[in-house]
Write a structure and sequence with these properties.
With 309 residues, this protein is of the alpha/beta class. The protein contains 14 helices and 5 strands. It has a 5-stranded parallel sheet with strand order 2-3-4-1-5, with helices on both faces. Helix 5 (149-158) links the parallel strand 3 (134-139) and strand 4.
């Protein structure tokens, strides 16, 4: 019986999206460097973009979903080993596990591990001209807490990326300080929200695929209200699709579902201390560091506000 592949190393399925050729071409150019860091807020379509890009370009890949368990480094090495075995089943060799005898020398273990990982994934079955780089995707990188040993481990692995391997990191935040050297050496290309958010033309293409005869006036109003934020666009489309007419009108521009999205997708997944901070400051019309510190007693109000911004 075939074993079930863990969700942690399963690439997301595609449904209902559009092929964003503008961004596909941009990603092609950014792949010239070893690491592409996709940094954008929740609901901006990062995961769908990268998954559809890999599908469009027929790129072989490992898709790895980071979570808090990866701060325990043996967990990362174990699941990445499973992903490598799935990606290159003909190679019967096993990647090493981080067992207790290696804990005193994690940097050396990391170097050996990534050397073996990259060697296993290097494309060999085509001429250099036709050969396509193997892509390793690290999704949800923002779930790794600051100060986690994961960041230093990843920095060590990124230091030795060979030609033929590319890394794509999907995150709601910018690269951590552990990757400063890689950044300084011009080995990372950034793809940020101002590039990812939908253009008006992309919004119109998405809407036409879901709603019949959308009025151009309301397409423009939708774009003005969402500013290209795809989660907002989808929420408004879902509301319109529930109507008998199946068309868009001004009544569809409600913030109720937007609020529900932020409450469920962002607030509920936020640190308890930040949740308390948000609840206590919700009564304020204007937020400042000094005012929120007095109201909440939080000594890190400035850090919280900066992260939220």
């Amino acid at each position: 019986m075939e074993k079930t592949v863990p969700v942690k190393i399963t690439r997301p399925s595609l449904s209902g999206g559009i092929k964003r050729k503008r961004l596909f071409n941009l990603l092609d150019a950014k792949m010239e460097k070893p690491v592409v860091w996709v940094s954008s807020p929740a609901g901006s379509g990062k995961t769908m973009l990268i998954s559809s890009y890999l599908e469009s370009r027929k790129r072989p890949c490992i898709w790895y979903r980071c979570d808090e368990r990866d701060s325990d480094l043996p967990t990362f090495f174990y699941y990445m080993g499973l992903a490598a075995k799935k990606a290159a089943p003909k190679d019967k060799s096993l990647l090493p596990l981080l067992t207790p005898e290696y804990l005193a020398g994690i940097p050396a273990f990391t170097r050996r591990y990534f050397e073996k990982l990259y060697s296993r994934l290097m494309p060999r079955d085509a001429s250099p001209v036709k050969r396509k780089s193997f892509i390793i995707v690290l999704d949800n990188y923002q779930d790794m807490p600051p100060g986690s040993p994961f960041h230093e481990m990843i920095a060590g692995g990124f230091d030795m990326i060979p030609e033929g391997i590319r890394i794509v990191v999907i995150s709601r935040s910018d690269p951590p300080s552990a990757l400063a050297r890689l950044h300084a050496n011009d080995q990372i290309n950034l793809l940020e929200y101002n590039e990812i958010r939908f253009t008006f033309e992309e919004l119109a293409e998405l809407v036409h695929g879901h709603i019949s005869k959308p009025d151009n006036k309301y397409l423009k109003e939708m774009y003005e209200k969402t500013e290209g934020w795809v989660a907002g666009i989808i929420l408004m489309l879902e509301r319109a699709k529930l109507k008998v007419t199946g068309t868009l009108s001004a009544d569809d521009f409600t913030y109720e579902r937007i609020f529900d999205y932020f409450a469920g997708e962002i607030f509920d997944k936020t640190d308890k201390g930040v949740q308390e901070f948000l609840l206590k400051t919700a009564i304020l019309n204007i937020l400042s560091v000094s005012l929120t510190e007095k109201l909440t007693g939080a000594g890190n109000a400035g850090q919280i506000l900066s992260a939220l911004n």
